[in-house]
Automatic annotation (TrEMBL):
Protein name (database record): 4Fe-4S dicluster domain-containing protein
Keywords: Iron, Iron-sulfur, Metal-binding
Keyword Iron set for record: yes
Residue stretches making up the 4Fe-4S ferredoxin-type domain: 27-89
Molecular-function annotations in GO: iron-sulfur cluster binding; metal ion binding
Example of a GO cellular component annotation carried by this entry: plasma membrane
Source organism of this protein record: Candidatus Desulfacyla euxinica
Length: 160
């Protein structure tokens, strides 16, 4: 679990490489003020969720521990942490990268994979029919296409 990591297992080289792969996420700019954690709505619901800790663990190369914990899936990418950070550390981008890595390495929860497959096959989580488009028309919203083949194409292009 995330709380149990020990310094002798740190892989600083991997952490720095991971941070560099993310581009301008600015992980190393974090100076541990914990402003991100103070504004995160998830921390009010789950004491184990801690944006600051994710930044530090990623920098020190504890990626596998973060992925194994499953806590990254609680992040809603609300951007409160990034807005509050005095140094512009882009934690939502880190969380997205960690989620993508979790999917690639087999750490994603079954429910996430099921939703991904539905989106891949249907183009959205739930199907749109003419009834939905009639409701949208009454609200002066444009109709949505019943089929979303472009989404499947994107999935196929990115899976290669």
């Amino acid at each position: 679990m995330i709380e149990d990591v020990t310094h002798n297992r740190a892989d600083l080289q991997f952490g720095q490489g991971f941070a560099e792969q993310l581009g301008d996420v600015r992980l190393s700019a974090c100076f541990m003020c914990r402003a991100c954690t103070s504004v995160c709505p998830i921390t009010r619901l789950n004491d184990s969720f801690n944006p600051f800790r994710f930044v530090r663990l990623a920098l020190f190369g504890y990626i596998e521990e973060v992925l194994e914990s499953g806590l990254i899936w609680f992040c809603t990418n609300c951007y409160a942490c990034q807005e509050k950070c005095p140094h512009g550390v882009r934690i939502p981008d880190l969380m997205t990268a960690l989620k993508n890595l979790a999917i690639k390495t087999g750490y994603a929860p079954r429910e996430v994979l099921l939703q991904m497959n539905i989106v891949k096959d249907q183009g959205r989580i739930y199907p749109i029919d003419e009834f939905d488009n009639k409701k949208r028309g009454k609200l002066n919203l444009p109709s949505l296409p019943v089929s979303c083949e472009a989404v499947s194409t994107l999935f196929n292009e990115n899976s290669e």
